[in-house]
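Hello Y.,

Per our agreement to keep a running log of every chain we model this quarter, I'm adding this entry. I've kept the format consistent with earlier entries: sequence first, then predicted structure.
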Amino acid sequence: MVSGWSLDAALSWLESLRHQGGGEFPDGRAAVLVCEVCGDLECGALSVRVTRGAGTVRWSDFGWQVPRTDGYDSLEVPLSLEFAVEAYDGLLTSLAQRLAAGATTQTSRRRGRGEAFESRLNI
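Predicted structure for the entry above:
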């Protein structure tokens, strides 16, 4: 992974977007934009309320939020996004699989470089 995020943290974040009220914040809101360097919510995050309905997933109540304070600062422009549930869940599953595959590939590359280095040292 390019950033400081661990694979487990990235997969947990994707899962938080799947479930209503399953976000990282105490009020159940989910972070959709976080610090690209560390992913730490203490840096602040753009958060949303995720709701699931009959065939749709909706992101609403966009706002800026940090975990150490109650509530969130609402965006001044009301915004709501709605997604078809099958496409939404399919995308989250696909992203999780790609992250896991990328982590496996990077681990294999690192292992391969280490083995090549060890063979040059005749270990």
